[in-house]
Amino acid sequence: MSVSESVQMYLLTIYRLTQEGEVAPANARLAERLGVSAVSVTEMMRKLQEKGLILKKRRAIALSREGERIALNVIRKHRLAERLLVDRLEIPWAHAYDQACKLEHILSDEVADALEEFLGHPATCPHGQPIPDRQGGIAPQRETWPLASVQAGERVTIEQVKEGSVELLNYLVEVGLRPGQEITVEQVAPFDGPLLISAGDRSFPLSREVAGKVAVSTREPRKAGAVRRSGP
Question: Residue 100 and residue 83: Cα distance in Å, rounded?
């Protein structure tokens, strides 16, 4: 099914809100995230339901199977574009995100397939997020949990960084927090205070807010109660 960029953005936003834990994203949250009026959201929801791309029950919204496939296809193109920009054109990964946001809507499926082949079938984007296949499938990922939940003394490996903020990505690059980087949590301040992180010969504090946007793993068995992340 061929859909407009506007429809793609609505489906993508619903998908991401759901992945962030909002089981039933409401019109108000969509309007806030997309920067549009509530009236515009209501009209688009009607169109998406008529096309069979969303399912509505009272005020709850969920993607249909086809709606989710379209959203994951946009994510696939975005993350392949990021790999091209970062790996081959050497554009800083923080700036590549915004450029990939533009390319994700104009790449055809055929071009995305060719790009995937050209790049050697990468499994993740530069931020460590998995790249869905053309059918919307996502390969099993290593178990991860938020850096904010790591205890003092633990040594972990950065697996994923949340996408979306150039300022955040620039800061994480500056302090050396990139996928594949090993770090140690030296101290954890009480009452939601910052974490003291060491990476190589550098030590620096990291707020809980930023640490919550970084997913990590370790080779050691994780204790019960760890938070597991799944999906892109």
Answer: 9
| Per-residue pLDDT reduced to its tens digit, 44-65 | 999 999 999 999 877 678 899 9
Q: Computed from CA positions of residues 214, 215, 220, 225, in that sequence, does the dihedral angle turn out positive or negative? A: positive
Contact between 145 and 216 under an 8 Å Cβ cutoff? The reply is: yes
Tell me which H or E stretch contains 63.
strand 60-63
The pLDDT of residue 230 is above 80:
no
Residue 59, Cβ neighbours under 10 Å: how many? Answer: 10
- Domain 145-217 listed as CATH 3.40.250.10: no
Given the structure tokens 């019960």, which residue do they identify?
224
CB 131 within 8 A of CB 124: yes
CA–CA gap between residue 195 and residue 67 (Å, rounded): 39
Question: What ranges do the domains of the chain cover?
Answer: 5-63, 73-139, 145-217
- C-alpha pair distances (Å), 2 with each of 11, 36, 64, 186, 226: 13, 23, 16, 51, 40
CB-CB contact of 231 with 152 (8 Å)? no
* CATH architecture of the domain with range 73-139: Orthogonal Bundle (1.10)
pLDDT per position as a tens digit, 173-211: 888 788 999 999 999 999 999 999 998 888 999 999 999
